[in-house]
Design a protein that fits this description.
The chain is α+β, with helices and mostly antiparallel strands and about 140 residues long. The chain is built from 3 helices and 10 strands, in the order E-E-E-E-H-E-E-E-E-E-H-H-E.
């Protein structure tokens, strides 16, 4: 039996507006720009986790189903993240307990605002990668 800690699974939703921009959040805990998302809880499905995380962090309810655009492994943090391209169904973007700011970002702004490991997730979603992208990173840079 391995003594290594297990991987965690997270989901993130890249909400795309009618102008092709992606909604980024500035996290309160680390001040980084990322797509909204977080850890999948033990008893929830992936779509439930995606709905919950996006709603908690943006105030937006997303339409279902969402499209899987990438699978990303943080080799340092042992996190596997599933990223989905989403459309807003209801709600107004708003900050909250976990979100300091929100910004509808163009492709160019995504690369300027977010670390490479998170920017690529958004860019893959904007491109509606098919088949989904599979990438690894160290938490900041692709590896």
């Amino acid at each position: 039996m391995s003594t290594d800690r297990p991987h965690s699974v997270s989901v993130a939703g890249v909400i795309v507006d009618d102008h092709g921009r992606a909604l980024l959040i500035k996290r309160r805990d680390n001040g980084k720009w990322e797509p909204p998302g977080g850890v999948v809880e033990r008893d929830e499905t992936l779509p439930e986790a995606l709905q919950r995380e996006v709603l908690e962090e943006t105030g937006i309810k997303i339409a279902t189903p969402a499209t899987l655009t990438g699978v990303y492994k943080n080799m340092t943090g042992l996190i596997v993240s599933l990223v989905f391209r989403c459309q807003a169904a209801d709600g107004t973007p708003t900050t909250g307990d976990e979100t300091r700011a929100l910004h509808w970002a163009t492709r160019e702004e995504v690369s300027e605002l977010a670390d490479e490991a998170y920017a690529i997730r958004v860019l893959d979603a904007l491109d509606a990668a098919s088949p989904p992208a599979i990438r690894a990173h160290d938490g900041v840079k692709l590896v």
